[in-house]
Amino acid sequence: MPSFALPPGYTRIRRVGSFDELVATPFVGGVNALCWERTLPGDFGEVVARIGATEGITTLDEARLAALPVSAAGSAAIGVLIEDLRLLRNQGLAPVLDCIEAYPRDDDANGVSTDVYSFHADSAPVQADTWLCTYHGAPSEGLRNEEARRRVDIPETRAALLRSFGGEDNEAFREYLSECCYDLHYTPVAGAQPFSFGVGNLWRIAVEHPGSAVPPCIHRAPETRPGQEPRLLLIS
Fold it and tell me: Which residues make Cβ contacts (< 8 Å) with residue 159, sequence separation at least 6?
């Protein structure tokens, strides 16, 4: 059974059957998210428990993973983590593995939060993609572009940002929106159906960059709730 479900009409996502296919498949025809669905062996919950993170974000490397006192199931999970790090590094990427209790929250006095809990698109000055996998805890969420509206295009929000900027709605203001990443954040339209990235799946999603053939994939981190299990997340 699929580990994540999409409402009808989500043509922007394509499932692939291997890491090689994930690497080789281009973003064309409006598709801006590729998913390699996986059912992973091992006990990632045990790995998270052994890490013992209590707050914020704990970044892990192979040496720390290898030193954890775990069962055979925990060892199998660690093997998956180390292999995924290797696969991405072999592609010239710089993956980061984090155990996340909570991300920093942004001061949204202007009506636009720019932290990762807000639906947003990643951007880069050159061609790039974002890779991510949630191994444990609540997974990332996505939002189809047709069901999203840029926050800076909402009149009330734009007016608040303009007051903060202290000028006119001109090129300088638009540069300000870009420099502060306000123009990368979105809100769902009425009736939107965000989708889950699922647990164990490795994703490659499109980034906003010059010359991109498709719009960027809109996504966010799940909201942190009291008593929630920490996330174990790989991202590059």
Answer: none
